[in-house]
Amino acid sequence: MEVRLQGIGKRFSREWVLREVDLILPEGSHTAILGSNGSGKSTLLKIIAGYLTPSKGAVEHLSVDKEKLYMELSIVAPYLDLYRDLDLDQCLDLHFSLRNFHEGMDKGQLKALLDLPSGRPVASYSSGMVQRLKIGLALATQSSLLLLDEASMNLDKASVEWYLGALKTYVGRRTVVVASNVQGMETSTCTRHFRIEEKSLKVC
To answer: Rounded to whole angstroms, how far apart are CA atoms 107 and 15?
Structure first.
């Protein structure tokens, strides 16, 4: 999926968070959006995802029916959670009753990739295990746009390496946007880097 943002601005009450953001995400590109906490990274990703409507400007998702955009989107973000009363199998079954598996993936392969305990509620998982599950679900879901907002949050070094390996293996031809505080391991798959500074987007 190609996404085009033109003149995007977003304000909450009287305060502008983003101003005059122009960005093209070519199909199959890997783009990093960097910035400090509170700089507007998550707001920008929510606008790209269609979760937020910009106060100014326009967003185009090329070749995608606006009403079906949610079916083309996979997202990992701290503000999106799981049904933690479910165990692993119940969580996977519920998710994939609503969405399709990505090409080359099925439930057995996903469980092997996750390597998480079954038969206990997700609520009993550590924060790192929950994050691992979120990442696995996003990668295993059929989509053409993958948004990763602080996806390495709560992951130790070994799990970050697992995450990057899984991303490289299962990303396919998806358009990927990674939001992060710093340029480092989390953005190592990205070939384009931008930073939000003073409410605007700048090339790194």
So the answer is: 45
Q: How many CA within 13 A on the CB side of residue 152?
A: 23
pTM of the model: 0.95
Segment 175-204, tens digit of pLDDT: 999 999 988 888 999 999 999 999 999 998
Instruction: Find the CATH number of the domain harbouring 104.
Output: 3.40.50.300
Q: From edge to edge, which strands make up the β-sheet containing 200-203?
A: 73-76, 145-149, 175-180, 30-34, 192-197, 200-203
Residue 174: DSSP 8-state: -
Domain that holds residue 9: 3-203
**What tokens were used for 191?**
């070939």
User: Structural domain tally of the chain?
Assistant: 1
Structure tokens at 41: 């990274």
